[in-house]
Write a structure and sequence with these properties.
The structure is a homodimer of 108-residue chains. The first copy, chain A, is mainly beta. In chain A, 0% of the residues lie in helices and 49% in strands. Strand 1 of chain A pairs antiparallel with strand 7 of chain B, so a sheet runs across the interface.
Chain lengths: 108, 108
């Protein structure tokens, strides 16, 4: 059954909103919706899995320890496991929809 | 380094165009670009892996043995391993961009 990344999003999002779209032993695909949310001051993600992330709509700024990356619709980036990062900001004028694919980084 | 799903697409696509965006032992993420392409008459995909697919831009019609599904931007669908399907049509007026995530369907 098909679904849409643009449907079934609550109007009010006090927190960032995460929905698992598909999951198996090896991979988890999530839709994440931000509504002006950012990582708390001083917080860094430090994940055990690789995360490939696509910005679907809205906009965002990711900060890494060595660079800052602005993401607009269609932009995608691979965040390898253990690469510390934070969401510096997301659009304050529209919801920001992300598609994230988490997976182990075992070599082929 | 960020990239965009909308950039670096050849103008002329005699065949459907596939680019691997990320790959590990467990998962393969592909950008697929169709330009009016469809599966050959009588051809059915019968894949050994689960495929989660998102239609990013353009439009398409997928045919399964028991249903036909029209996909527009933002629509996504999980195609379990061994579920036979074909691409019945893709937009004839613009390129159709797909994001596909192939992975083993091992239970969690």
């Amino acid at each position: 059954m098909k679904k849409s990344l643009f449907n079934n999003i609550p109007d009010a999002l006090p927190n960032e909103w995460v929905e698992v779209l598909a999951e198996s032993a090896d991979v988890r695909i999530e839709r994440i919706v931000s509504d002006g949310h950012a990582s708390p001051d001083g917080f860094w993600y430090d994940q055990g899995q690789d995360e490939w992330v696509l910005l679907v709509s809205g906009s965002a700024v990711l900060t890494f320890e060595d660079e800052t990356v602005e993401l607009n619709p269609g932009d995608h980036i691979m965040i390898p496991a253990r690469r510390r990062h934070r969401v510096e900001s997301t659009s304050s004028t529209e919801k920001t929809i992300w598609l994230a694919v988490f997976h182990e980084n075992d070599p082929i």
